[in-house]
Model the fold of this input.
Amino acid sequence: MLLEKKVIEKILDAGMATGADFAETFVEENYHNNYQLVSGQIEKANGSKSFGIGIRLALGLQSVYGYTNSQNPDDMVNLAADLAKSFDKEEKTTRNPLMKLEIGTRHQVQRAPRDVPQEEKAALMKKAYRAAKNYDEVIKQVAVNLKDSEQEVLIANSEGRYVTEKRYRVRIFINAIAGGNGIMQTGAEGPGSGKGYEFFDNDIDVEEEAISAAKIAKKMLEAEECPSGIMPVIINNKFGGVIFHEACGHSLEATSVAKNASVFCGKMGQQVAAPIVTAIDDGTIENAWGSANYDDEGYPQRRRVLIENGILKSYMTDFIDARRMKCGITGSSRRESYKFAPTSRMSNTFIDNGASTFEEIIANTKYGLFAAKMGGGSVNPGTGDFNFAVSEGYIIRDGKIAEPVRGASLVGNGADILWKIDMIANNLKRAEGMCGSISGSIPADVGQPTIRVSSMTVGGKKEDK
Amino acid sequence: MMSFDNLFTRAKEKGFDDVQIFLTGNRDLSIEVFEGETEKYEIADTTSLTIKATKDGKMVTFVTEVINDSEIEFIVDEMLKNVEIITSTDKSEIYAGDPEYQKMTGMYNKELEDMDVKEKIDIAKNLDELIQHEDPKVKTVESQYGESSRTILLQNTKGLKLTDHLNSGYLGASVIVNDGKDQRTNFDAIISNDFVDFQPKELSAEIVKTAVDSLGAKPVPSKKYPIVFDRNATSILLSAFMQIFSAENVQKDMSLLKGKLETRIGSEKVNIADDPFRKKSSLSRSFDDEGVATKYKMLVENGILKTYLHNLKTAKKDGVKSTGNGFRGSVDATNFTLLPGDKTKEELIGSLQEGLYIIEVQGAHAGANPVSGDFSLQAMGFVIRDGKQAEPVALITVASNFIDFLTNIEDVANDIKTTIYGITCPSVKVRPLSVSGL
Done:
């Protein structure tokens, strides 16, 4: 029990003393570990424990938020009273009694980080290190980071909502650096999960992941600079989905839609993408990196079809933005920790399988860029303009994957690119990432099958002959 | 509350050689105004305790927000478990202290913290209103006022005890403008701990003018252009590559500056300092997180790399003294500063017949590689024609290598500013770089 029910009731009551029509508490305890191995040696083995409470009050569209990590219930009640000073109605609002909601967790964990011996964690990192380092002599450096966390939350609000949840996460990050001829190139893999350490036993092979990171670094070392220009771009599955996440997903979050700051405003039910495009945000996938039983406002996570056959079907909304937009809540509210007021965010977002195969897409492209692996990117939600780095790229020539190229970036516009997707393969896969926005940095899956964009601006450094 | 003496005693009893605590207390305020109303009002009061302990030269860290005596046993046991798996042969130590520490002035302004919150809400509302009326093309405004105050206590078993107290505020706004054909955004902010520095009128005019001027922005043909980067764009680039100066990255083969000490990495015009004493900056400090006295130092002098940034561990490895840059368990700059020149930004633009004036670059966290130095970033700005700012440009990428960028800096302006990216720098003029657009 993170905090006694009667303390929570006191906080909610203090918050509603001046007429707020909504009050919420988010109590959190987070225990996490962070291990780092560089040059074959374990250099860091750090632990941390955080505890705090975030209190939110709202009146209409106006909301106030405060947080403290004092463990003293009086400080929490005082914080709620301080926040209540933002409203000045004479009358106290009455709230619904707290009713515990229990839907049973979908995300079972077998080996919680706390139960796994340090030696096993150390061995896992060393295994990854050796596999990457021994891949080839051009691999000069390998860094391995292992992170695990156990987050316990208790969310309650004045509508009577009262939920608790424990969320586990593990992730290993392998970064290989290849060097030669005065240049260095990197390759990285970072698989993670909403499982415990059984993820490393059953779901992935860290050696394979490490070799993949080393392979990319070596390939990119041998690669030439990418040419620039407008060309067809084939974006591979898995982390290639970052393009949809950044360029379209963020613009479908109520955070930008409610404020008229999205290119998708007022487009519900309209064609916003090529008819072959179906895109989904699903926070219920079992033990996925971006899944949870409840969102951070205490509503059950859901599967949301955002775009179906090119038609805009749903935004992602949270409590306050749903009020602003006069629409329903989609269970999309998330936050990094108690230090952030929650807002609408993605969970596991992906473009759904299409009718083509990977081979058909390559074979049907005379000349273009194959972005085998994407790096990160960013987007301006107001305009939809985006920028992505390609961390592993190849030129496509006469329907075949030809020479590797490095330093490429993809530039475009989110709303525009959705129309230019002209082929979608049937090899959907997801990959883990951290997504940063106003409610902090949160784990989120991106994903897609291999897709082709008929034309896109590719930025590179190769000089024009 | 936790007794640190009890913690020190228990940790030593259980086998640690030395222990250090780093306690920070933060008070934060954040106000957002949207369409004339206070949309967000956030207050926070948090305390965080970072404990470092060494055993046989191996160091572990535990961070906790649960700061009371009943946690001591748990924390010491967790640290003991962790220290056992460390294999690094680099010796870490807890620092006994320096003979002298800079006396800091102008870092904490009590007046700012004590000021009625209503005045702070009002200035954000005022900025919002000014922007709304600046131009009919203004569609959406969001203005913000934020403030944070920080107290720091460092104490260890070697008898060192140090404190710092800082505060800082910012006033900023983002705007969306639309002329029926195109939509553009802009954001800018002022950072200071002196309320007088927050001038909503100038800020409003600047934010809106740039956004409106950008309407109708289009790509330019792909080729090499000489470029003037304004101070915001320059600061984004510098912040993306700042970590290459860290000796930790150099020693781990993760920096392109390896082996480059006392060699040329930039043009004569490039002078970069790390300034821990910059007034009104929340990044200023008299001691780092390891207790080492901070100092002003030149990283790059007339284009020559003079030093890396060191903490105790990296300094020991290189046989030098720590530069007082041991922050957050790693190595970090304080106020990373590209020193100004004497020309105005307008003079830099005026010196170009044909070129680009870039006001924003995006995607620095992904499109800039600190190991190889390569970057390829989406950029926005204006064409420069006959020495004047002409039509707006967007959806282009500027690609180069960070060393090439520094080497090609032909001139540095005098318009130095601390940006929200935590970098203090002026605008710069750079010889032709590859631009890809049409």
Q: What stands out?
A: Residues 229-459 of chain A form one domain. Chain A touches chain B through 80 residues (CB under 8 Å). The two ends of chain A are 68 Å apart (CA to CA). Residues 206-222 of chain A form the longest helix (17 residues).
